[in-house]
Structures are given as structure tokens and as C-alpha cells.
Amino acid sequence: MTLRDIMKYIESEYKVINHTPCEICGGDYLTEDIQIALIDDIPYDLCACVCSHCGHEKIFEFSAPFINENGMKKIRNNLN
Ligand SMILES: [Zn+2]
Known about the structure:
Layout: H1 3-18, E1 29-39, E2 42-51, E3 57-63, H2 69-79
Antiparallel strand pairs: 1-2, 2-3
Bound molecules: zinc ion.
């Protein structure tokens, strides 16, 4: 999988986040941080989001079996 494919995957995650209204006030979530965590040996992409209206925090979990640490570093470099 190329970095471009990974970025597409991340973009689709952002779409899910953008289409999920805050469960408290219905506002929009903003992504604050992305982390990779291993759950049962499967890498998960954990997006820490905060509501832009009320500040409610929510963690979005996406399975990301293709992502390793090097891939994640590339993504972080690309985002910054
Ligand atoms: Zn809210």
C-alpha cells in the first residue's frame, strides 16, 4: 500500500468523523490527534476528536491493519 492509498484511507475516516454529529449538541467534531493502538494484535487508528461547539470529546476507532509505525510517521509528516 502506498502512502497515497493510506492518505485516501485517512480521508475516508475524516469523512466519517465529519458526518458524525456530536452526541451532546449535534455540533461538528474536529480531529485533535491520531494515534495507532494495538488491540488484539490488530492496529487501530484512534482519532481523538472534540466537538467544536460544546467541547465534548469522542474517540473514533478505525481498524488499520496496513499501518505500521513507519507508515504512521509518513502520515504525520504529510499532515503537518
Ligand atoms: Zn457538542
